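Per-record layout

source: Thermothielavioides terrestris
name: Protein root UVB sensitive/RUS domain-containing protein
length: 451
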Amino acid sequence: MSRSYYDIDPAGGEVLCTYTEGGEQEKLKSEKTDVPLLKAILYAFLPAGYPHTVTDDYLAYQTYDSLQAFASSITSLLANRAVLEGLGVGDSSSSPTGALILKITGDTISRIATILFAHRMGQAIEPECKFYRFLADLFNDSAQFLDLLTPALPYFPKLAVIVSAGVLRSLCGVAAGASKASLSAHFAVTGNLAELNAKEASQETVVSLLGMLAGSLVVRLVEDKQLVWLLMVALAAVHLIMNYRAVRCVRMRSLNRQRATIVFREWLDHGAVLTPAQVARRESILRNGRGNLASKTGEYTGFCEFVTYGQLRGWNPKGYHRYDFETSSYFMGIWHRGGHFHMRIALKEGTKNPLSAWFDAVNHAYHFDSALKDGLQSHYENEMPLGYVSDEQKETIFAALAAAGWDLEVNALETRLPVRVRVGDGKKIVPFSEKEQTRLLSHGHQEAKND
């Protein structure tokens, strides 16, 4: 009696090889599953087990990302040619020492800019990775347009342009590298982050080679300055459009300020919970990404941010009415003047995820149409503020969010180093270990006997 065995891909259940065992005297027969040539080539550039080992938005993002990289490769060659001309390549009257000083100065300042930008903005890149991924290419294209100016400028203006372009490239490197790492972590769903990055590097290599080949032909044929500028504008437009489409495809599962606001507003308006795919279609890449809030009618607009206790208590802008209140997990200050308001939250020690505080901020802003007209003081003197949602109700909402596919364990709301407020003398009381408690008890008994 013959039996069959199969080697399968556990990610998708695809049969890789079939084995047939006929009996004791017969040898094991094996038959590999034929894979079409095109599919085999694609497997070399896609993560193992695709599409089951990545998110649904992976292919769309990588397609647009490859197209933008192709356009960027051509513009890079045009910009590099302009830089070489500006440094004096092909000009016998130019000084090699002067060109070297230009290069060293630009590289030095760009490295300093890299350190400063990473220190200042590093914490904000992961929560806002889609914004920074697009911003990185804005920096890159701006640097390339500055490069085109170098051949026509005298020495010191040329130095300023080279330094500025270098700084923009360093900002691009930090923003692109950090945001890509965050996006890769989002795409990898089976712990295959390293392999996904390796395959992405293979994709970029092929696209860059194709772009260099096409760019070499363009550089050879296009010499006229006006035509170069027109070509750069067209390619930069393609580059930015493809990059914008790429980040628009991504359906992040973490709740940053904008996504959390969209989700909570939908619940307040209609009692419905949006999925990551639905929110991705609504969120903005360039606007409303850093804590913008509004009332139900939109008559009152404002901003909310997480701050230290000193920044909350010490901030008193002129002409604003102010109200402060405290809950078990945070302090909140609200300032308003006319149709504008500002909210600040200082989280208490022990608060791991500020999602509940942000829900309260969105909820307060939602009801400002009536609350601000009546005056915040009278509004909060009631037993419960208008639109109050209990902790039990919020837990129900958060459970529904998790069921809809949101990852509530990731804190994507704070874009700076998280700070918590300790109420008391500021000393951290460290509990004794079991061994120390035993030693102290025995010491106490000994002293009692001596007495």
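summary: The CA atoms of residues 114 and 394 lie 41 Å apart. The chain has three domains: 3-34, 58-249, 254-412.
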